Amino acid sequence: MTQTNVPGTNRIAAVFDARSSAGQLAFMPFITAGDPDVPTFVQLVRTLGAAGADFIEIGFPYSDPIADGPVIQSSYTRVLESGTRLKDYLAAVRDLETATLPPLLAMVSYAIVLRRGPQAFLGQLAEVGFSGLIVPDLPGDEAQELVQLADATGLALVQLVAPTTPERRVQQIVRNARGFLYCVSVAGTTGERDRLPDSLRSKLKELREHTRLPLAVGFGIRSPEQIDFLRGVADGVIVGSAIVRRVAELANADPQGRAELLQRIGEYVRGMATAAHALAAR
Fold first, then answer.
1. Most buried by CB count within 10 Å: which residue of 5, 166, 235, 280?
2. Which residue stretches of the chain have pLDDT < 70?
3. 68 counts as catalytic
């Protein structure tokens, strides 16, 4: 998998290369920044890293997300209503000593990028320790300017591809992609599903013909069986709603209850990471 002179891209590529060489999938959990509060968010990031996550995707709360289902939307609402703001969780990430953690990726609306100023915002992300970002509402074939800024800042700008993306647009998106391709498993919003579509494997095989970038699949994944379904056609899996739903239980728990819930979240993530990492041995 091709490396570049972009530090974030190189760090991401190194993880995928290591897992691919071992015949394994990389595992990427998603949590919402500042959810349910900043100190617990910090504990969650550390818990995910200790549980075997290869990357950690962090969603930046936004009042009008376009691709997130009700579980993640509710987490965004919790954070926004609590008064926690961007500066608060960026400061928390800075204090995490991210060099000791898996690569962090920000999932952020383009409206936030524009409001802050693309160059200044990307500089903030790099400064606090992010390796890359995903901007779901910026079409990949229109992302050239932001790609150039991200490259110059040392960040990988990851692009999304959906099952309905026409082949012509796939070719344009791939040209602007860095780090890996985020492959949406189904049309629609995020959320846990009982099974992935049978057509997904063939879609991933078709996509492989267009790029050597790693393919990481998200939307709907919640079980080791779904991870097993992706063996041989994907390089990584992304799990969000199944984790964020568990995080929601932390909001009203007492200190002892929070400790137990954090432990259970860690156990769930460890089980999913183990399934991804043990895939070749099955």
1. 235
2. 1-4, 65-68, 186-195, 279-282
3. yes
